Structure formats: structure tokens, C-alpha cells
Amino acid sequence: MEQGSVDVIDGKKIQEKYLREEMMPTIFCDGCGIGNVLDYTLWALEREGIDMDNTVFLSGIGCSSRLPGYVDVDALHTTHGRALAFATGVKLTNPELHVVVFTGDGDGIGIGGNHFIHACRRNLDVTVVCVNNFIYGMTGGQVAPTTPETKKATTAPYGNIEPPFDMSKMAIASGASYVARWPVNRPSMPINSIREGLRNRGFSFIEMLSPCPTAYGRRNKFRQIDQMWEWYAEHTMLIEDYEMIQRYGSEEEKAGLQDMITMGVLHREEKPSLSERIRRLTAEVMEK
Amino acid sequence: MNEEFERAKKVIGGAKQFIHGDTAVSYGALLAGCRFFGGYPITPASEIAEQMSRLLPRVGGTYIQMEDELASIAAVIGSSWTGAKAMTATSGPGFSLMQENLGFAAMSETPLVLVNVQRSGPSTGQPTLGAQGDMMQARYGSHGDYHPIVLSPNTIQETLEMTIRSFNLAEEYRCPVFLMICADLGHMREMVEIPQQVDLFQRKKPKVPRDEYIPFGEGTYGKKKVPEMAIFGTGYHTYVTGLTHDEHGFPATDDQEDHDRLIRRQIEKITDDREALTDIERRNLDDADVAIVSYGIASRSALEAMRKAREQGKKVGYFRLKTIWPFPSHAIEKLSGKVNKIVVAEMNLGQMYHKVNEYACCEVSLASKIGGEIHTPNEILAEV
Question: Under DSSP, is residue B19 helix (H, G, I), strand (E, B) or coil?
């Protein structure tokens, strides 16, 4: 089968293989993108032939952090924002394990910001799949560090007055070795990016722009899912096109880049992971 | 196993060493099989991290300095679930920051050891000076109902030995264990004999196949209220959450009975063994009219106060708590039936005093000292 193509029958087999039947149905609302993100992750695991006996999923708190509970795997559903710190202990204790972390925008860069930048800096060998829905969904729609300016939230009833964080840029600046971003309505690219993330020996960050009709959409005219798709279409641009316009575009085209969210593989770099550095140190010191 | 212990002994070096309490902690940890340390610098506990960063790589273990204390204890919990004996060390401000994840450790029944080298608080307080101000925080610092095990030594030798005991208890009871020392013990040097052999408790792991394993139910071949713990990566697919969970580990957040059953078991696994966990040093209590109850560094002044009182012909006895929590309520009850008065000597404005008062049927008075100094024996004597 070709990379990225989706087979419905196989999709069912994948669900049977990876999900915990007894945990269904999920807690997610209609139109939520988190299910898609889980689906893409499972496809990526399947395509990479990852042994689930040798895999640990971690998460913090929030809607996206409920994902590991639906997967038949060792999982640590931790405290708000701290999943990467827990993951550090897991990975360093058994570097052979595949470690996958699910997080959201509030969990990952709000309360978990400090852990996020340091896990990137260390190039901790984990794959982070981040559901960015621009809002605190589980608590009912409070403004997040990623909420675009002027968008409304229960705690920003007149519109958000703060500038939002660009999580992927933050990851690159902090030292992550693989960073990709995709909206959730483009199935094959995220699957490929998660696969690449799983293969990368280092910190892999896959940011998924994902709709939250319940907490974000209804206050911002995105209640219908196709309204959100439209917004993604208008506000995202492939990194290659973005860079091309930056270089060769007209002034008008360049002006259009403002507030544009780049998508694609944003960064790729070969460098030693934290586990590798520790292994080298241990080998060196134990010989003495 | 034996090979690992021999390697630890070799890395530690001389069988008799003149070391301070922080070093004793690191030696004890190494001998107990600790192979993961996640920490963050803080006075007066930093020397434990320094020692562990030197020692752990030499026994194949992992040291990591995390970005803050929240992360340190989180990494320790992750490591423990991945099969290592894991620890951190901190002092008051860091201990406060760790409370959230310590609640997670209690809820997820994660074995870990935390050494608190106490300093004067609240807040930044007196960073370099000792105190015993975190005794109640050790018991009740996180939200909700839970029960850690808390120990307190009073010599450097005992600090080393109690560190080993802390790891054994953490593994046996699947709970956080706190070793409470203070800046004075942490930085004081005494001659210490390195144990040449130790008994180590091996974590109980499931022996049944995956579909029969109940991760948060009853233990099947160890203690009944302590379930076996499957290590990540061994094929058991355990779901571990801080949410109230059923015995299979899955969220059960709106059922009163599920929560009641889970939390009571987690607490009773400790309190059912209250007598077995009790560890008390008693001196001159047979004929005593007054007993001085103390623990940690303050007990060294209490011992001297007792000796002075005896010299003066006063019938004073010495009662030292080595296990702080679970509180030895039965032993305090019994003691208070034999003496007319109990004096609690501690370096705070009254913490364990309240607990003693709760169970004693005699007069209880408090000899407190704060400000980073240990009581003089006379200050304790004045209360006797």
C-alpha cells in the first residue's frame, strides 16, 4: 500500500488492534479533531511496525490528554503540563522504549511551557503529538496562550487582547530536532510526519491544528466544522510557499503573510539525543 | 543483584568514612539500588545531587538535573514506573513545589524516595539553617486523602541506614517515602561505617498473565492491600492515572464507592501496619515521671537534657520517633499512661506536638525552637 492512502477496512482492523474496546465511547464532542489525531498516530505506529509492548504513551491534563486511555498500551496520564517531565524519567530509565506524548496547547505551552522548552533543548527522544485547538476545551473554553488575537473565549468575552504563541517556532528555537505542523483535515501528511517523528532519534514535535466546535467554535463563528476548515484554508500556507513569497513575492503578497500559519515539515536536524549523550557518558565513566 | 551491590560498594570506597549527612544519603541510596536521581539545586540539599551526579554514572544509573522541582519529582515517578528505584532530594521551597506530583505518586501508588533536608521557612526563610518545619507538610502537603511513610534519623550513620530503609519501605508499600533530615544533619560530618551487606526488598511484580492482572486491586502474593506493580515495557499495558480509577486502572470519576474503596485501601495499606512500621528509641523510661519526645537533630539535645535531669535526680526519660508517619499513636498512648508529663522538643512552633497531644492522656508541653538553631539541653530542661 502506498504511503498515506487510507483503506477503510484496514482502518477498522487498526482500531481493533490498538484501541481499548471497554473504554468506548470516547468523551470527545461531535466535530472534535482529537479522534483524527489519534487515528493518524495509530496509522503511523502501524506503518512503522512499532511493538506496542515496547511503547509508552504519556499525557498531561486536558481533552487531548485523555487519548492514552483509549489505547491498549502502557500509559501514564499525569498532572497538568508535566507529561514531558514524567516522560524524561521513563525514557532515560529504559531508552529502548518508544515514548509518545499527547498534549494540547494549554497543557503543552501554557502550564507546561518550562518542561516543553527544556525537553526540546535536551533533544529528549520522544514523539510529541500536540492537539492545538486554540482554547482550554475541557474546562469550558477559557482563553489559551495560543488563542488568536480578537478571538473570543469565556475569559476573553471582548476578544483576546494577547498575542498567541507559535508552538512550533518555540520548539525549533528550543532545540527540537523534528518539527512539523498540519491542520487535522489533511490525513496523509500528519501520518507521514508522525512516522518521521517516531523514526527520529530526538525530540519530535508534531503540532496538529484541530477544531473544537464546542468551546472555541461556538463563540467564534466556527460552530460548523466546514467553517473551521475554511479558516484553516485561509490562514495556513505550506512552508515552501511561505518561504518562496518571503524571497520572491511582491509587497502585496508579503503583506499577506502576516498572521499566516506555516504548515509542513518546519524543521529537521540530525543531532544526538539525550539518551545517546547519557549512554556515552556512562560508558566512559564506567570504564574508569 | 549482588554484582550491582558490590559495584556500588566499590564506587563508594572506604568502609569507614568521615562524611556529612547529604553524602550519607547518596551512599545509602546507591547501596539500596537507587539508579535514578532527578533533582534541582537547593540549599542545603544540593550536595546530595552533586554526589549522585558523580556516583550514579559509575554504577550505570542515571542522574538528571531537571528544570525545576515539579519536573524532578515527575521524572522520578516516570522512572519508577519504568522499573528503577528512583529518588529526589530537596528542601522546603522545593518540597512545596513537589506537592502536586507527590499526590499523583500517592494516587498512582508509585514507590519513590524523597529526602527533605529541612531549612527554616516559610518561603525562602533561612536557606542555610536547619529546621523541622515540614513535618506536617510531609503528611498533609498535597490535596486530598493519602498517607506517605516518613522517617527521621538523628546521626549520619542512621541517615545512611534510614535511606536504605526508605527504599525498602517504598518498594514494599508502593508509596512515596520521605526521609526528613535538616541542614544541621545534612552538613554535619561524623564517622560512618559503610554497611558491607544489606537486605533489600524486591518490588512485587505480577506473576499472572496479562488478562488476569489487576493493577490496582488486591495484592495476590505479597501484602493484600498492595497490588503487584507491572513495569512499563513488560507487556502488561497498564493505564496509570491520577484520576480516581477502578481496580483495572480506568477512570471512575463519578462513583462514590470506587473512590472510597481506592483511597481507603491506599491509606490502610500503611495504617494497618502502624505497629510494624513504628520505630522508637527509648531510654530511661521505666521509672520516668517525665518523658521528652523528640526526633531528628533536636533529639540529640533532648538526650543531653535527659542526662542532665538524671544528674539532678529528676526522673526523666527519652522517647525518640524514628518513624514519624504513620504516627505511633498506640505508643504515645501507652507512654502517657506511665508518665505524668510529656515534653515535645522540636524545631518549629509545634507540629508533632499536636499529634502527641491528640493521643496523650497526660500533660503535654512544647519545647520549641526556631531561627535555625538547635535547642540547648537547658532550653529543653526548662520545660521538664
Answer: strand
Residue B103 in any domain: the answer is yes
Task: List the domains of chain A with CATH numbers.
Answer: 27-287 (3.40.50.970)
Which CATH number is B56's domain given? 3.40.50.970
Is B243 part of any domain? no
Q: Which of B153, B178, B193 is the last residue of a domain?
A: B193
Least Cα separation, residue A27 to chain B (angstroms) = 12
Using the 3D structure, point to which of B147, B173, B193 is the last residue of a domain: B193
Q: How many CB atoms lie within 10 A of CB A283?
A: 11
Eight-state DSSP code of residue B211? G
* B188 burial via Cβ count (<10 Å: 0-12, 13-18, 19+): buried
Chain A hits for B234, CB-CB cut-off 8 Å, are 53
**Chain B residues whose beta carbon lies within 8 Å of the beta carbon of residue A97:** 82, 232-233
The closest CB to that of B62, out of A68, A97, A278, belongs to A278
Q: What is the pLDDT along chain A (288 residues), one digit of tens a residue?
A: 444 455 555 778 898 999 999 999 999 999 999 999 999 999 999 999 999 999 999 999 999 999 999 999 999 999 999 999 999 999 999 999 999 999 999 999 999 999 999 999 999 999 999 999 999 999 999 999 999 999 999 999 999 999 999 999 999 999 999 999 999 999 899 999 999 999 999 999 999 999 999 999 999 999 899 999 999 999 999 999 999 999 999 999 999 999 899 999 999 999 999 999 999 999 999 877
Q: Using an 8 Å CB-CB cutoff, list chain A residues near B62.
A: 92-93, 278, 282
Candidates B36, B233, B241; nearest CB to A56: B233
Tell me, yes or no, whether B341 lies in a domain. Answer: yes
In this structure, the answer to whether residues B28 and B138 fall within a common structural domain is yes
The 3-state DSSP composition of chain A as helix, strand, coil percent (nearest 5) reads 45, 20, 35
Give me the torsion for CA of A171, A174, A175, A180, rounded to 10°. 10
Among B67, B81, B238, beta carbon nearest to A90: B81
- Structurally, chain B folds into a number of domains equal to 2
Q: Which residue range(s) make up the domain with B337?
A: 281-381
